[in-house]
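TEACHING EXERCISE
Course module: macromolecular assemblies
Task: Read the component lines below, then compare them to the predicted structure of the full complex.
Student: A.B.
Group: 4
Components provided:
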Amino acid sequence: MSPTQIITFPDVAALSEGLAHYVARISKESIKRHGKFTIALSGGSLPKQLANLAKDSSIDFAHWHVFFADERCVPLDHEDSNYLLAKTYLFDHVPTLPREQIYTIDSDLVNDPSEAAEDYISQLAKVFATKDSVRFPVFDLILLGVGPDGHTCSLFPGHELLEEKTAWCASIEDSPKPPSSRITLTLPVVNHAHHIAFVAAGAGKQDMLHQILDSQGDLPAQLVKPTAMGTLTWFLDDAAAAKVTSATSKGLERL
Ligand SMILES: O=C1O[C@H](COP(=O)(O)O)[C@@H](O)[C@H](O)[C@H]1O
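Instructor-supplied answer key:
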């Protein structure tokens, strides 16, 4: 397994610049390798950190295929929607990203989370071949956040969804963080990605990051372990990294 890389930045502005650099590089490499860039985005505090991407004219958004690592079962214009956040900070500023290559939860199915998850699997299958011909989608990049309880995607500590071994996407109707109904990529899908990056900022995440990165355990974020072909990178600002004792590297030169 590739070692985990932890990269720190002095503040959120530097972090989001570094993140843009990294995403641009993987986008270029992926488009060169297979003619497209498949990325899954998280919600929460992450989409705001993506704003710098829209300023990079070297990025070929026309070949992007964007999924969501998790989504809340709400309409797309609802304030809890992860899509709405990504639209606000990124999609609205990149007209070259074809709207049909942004794969959202079906807003007609938000009252039926398990149907919404099934529908999302069908959407994944359109881009990643059919369910029968590949075991799991292999994203070029999955961008993850981490909650103060160690959750990532909509995979929460101690929840039975952490045991899911075969489904590509699953529903949860008892999320401890509101809203309670969501859909989420499963751990095997996350772990099969070529590149996985966690992004976390702010002093409020210090204790959790220390626990996740400096010990072994079964918190959802600790269960993110890429396959032999994958990489795992953590993007942290200095405030979030303050209690991390594992080896970290500073800033852009590591990218
Ligand atoms: O509910 C969610 O929370 C996590 C973490 O959010 P953050 O605001 O603490 O960064 C997020 O990654 C996930 O997509 C979202 O649905």
